[in-house]
Specification:
66% helix; 6 strands; 14 helices; two-stranded antiparallel sheet; 331 residues; globular; mainly alpha
Length: 331
């Protein structure tokens, strides 16, 4: 309850700070123009960008303060500080990206370094359950050892970039992050209630996850209020990286990293659709957005932009931006 109360305060202060700082960021040159709205591009009203930095700082302050009131054991405190350090590193990367527009290779290297604190702090199992058909040969479990650490590192890199490349319409980045975070919270609550021992490792792991994901959810909700259609602010790469690393942190140190991937099915689909352009087999434009039709005010599929957004429009036909975002968030 104390965590939830602090998170409600985080929502309130995030909402106030977004209103306070959006004009200052715009005046400093951190703004964009909404490509999916009518009008000549250079005459469109500038929209303040990189507001993800505001809610990321509030979120980090709340999670740091949690250490005072929750009374972690020494082992859990090490994991908690490793989590905060990893999130801080990607928030820094995201804001630098918003300011100077990093190249793709830099966006891979920095999240890789940011995962080191997580992997060092991880002290759980490195085994996986073997499918039933293979158990007569391999047994019930197989220990992957260092390969499992490689898997966890790749999860963190994937999460930090998956949300960033599944974006481009008002509210989608924040909307999908809120849905993923909500289902992580539900998963944690279910696991806690199913655990027969309130002092078991399973209970402590999922309680650990809740102490991070609940403040994140409330801060995200404050940002969604301003970023939903029509967007008053843009979130920037800062929020995308912060959200992705937060999910990786709670999945890895909450010991449900495999289950976490079930919550990333749309992002996995978008990643596999994007892969030919991401690795350079097909030319990759700067913005892989759908086409805005000035006459119908609808978004239309662009055939050579390989994203889930364009695939959705190809299957279900043109629609307006608000309806498209709502459909993808529900999906």
């Amino acid at each position: 309850m104390l965590t939830f109360a602090k998170s409600v305060f985080a929502f309130w202060i995030s909402d106030k700070l977004i209103v306070t700082f959006k004009d200052q960021l715009r005046d400093k040159g951190l703004f964009g123009r909404d490509l999916n709205k009518s009008g000549i591009q250079k005459y469109k009203k500038p929209v303040p960008e990189a507001l993800g930095i505001v809610i990321s700082i509030v979120f980090l302050v709340i999670t740091i303060q949690q250490q005072v009131t929750l009374g972690f054991t020494k082992d859990k405190l090490i994991e908690y500080n490793a989590s905060i350090l990893a999130i801080c590193m990607v928030v820094l990367l995201g804001f630098v990206d918003d300011v100077i527009d990093l190249k793709w290779r830099h966006k891979i290297i920095v999240p890789t370094v940011a995962t080191f604190p997580l992997l060092v702090a991880y002290n759980g199992l490195t085994s996986v359950v073997v499918p039933k058909m293979l158990r007569p040969v391999l047994g019930n479990f197989i220990n992957l050892g260092p390969l499992y650490y490689l898997y966890m590192g790749n999860i963190a890199i994937f999460c930090t970039n998956a949300i960033n490349i599944y974006a481009g319409i008002n509210g989608l980045e924040v909307g999908q992050s809120f849905i993923i975070g909500l289902f992580i919270m539900i998963h944690n609550i279910i696991e806690i209630f199913q655990s027969k021992d309130s002092n078991s490792d399973v209970t402590h792991q999922h309680m650990f996850s809740l102490t991070i994901i609940i403040p994140f959810l409330l801060c995200t909700l404050a940002l969604l209020k301003s970023n939903k259609f029509p967007s008053k602010v843009f979130v920037g790469d800062t929020f995308c990286y912060c959200a992705g690393m937060t999910f990786a942190v709670v999945g890895i140190l909450g010991h449900f990293s495999k289950t976490l991937m079930l919550f990333f099915i749309p992002q996995l689909l978008n990643f596999f659709l994007s892969l030919p352009q991401l690795i350079g087999i097909i030319a990759c434009p700067r913005h892989r957005l759908p086409k805005f039709n000035q006459e119908t005010y609808r978004l239309e599929c662009v055939p050579n932009h390989f994203t889930l957004i364009n695939a959705w429009l190809r299957v279900f036909g043109p629609t307006n931006e608000k309806e498209l975002c709502n459909a993808l968030v529900v999906f």
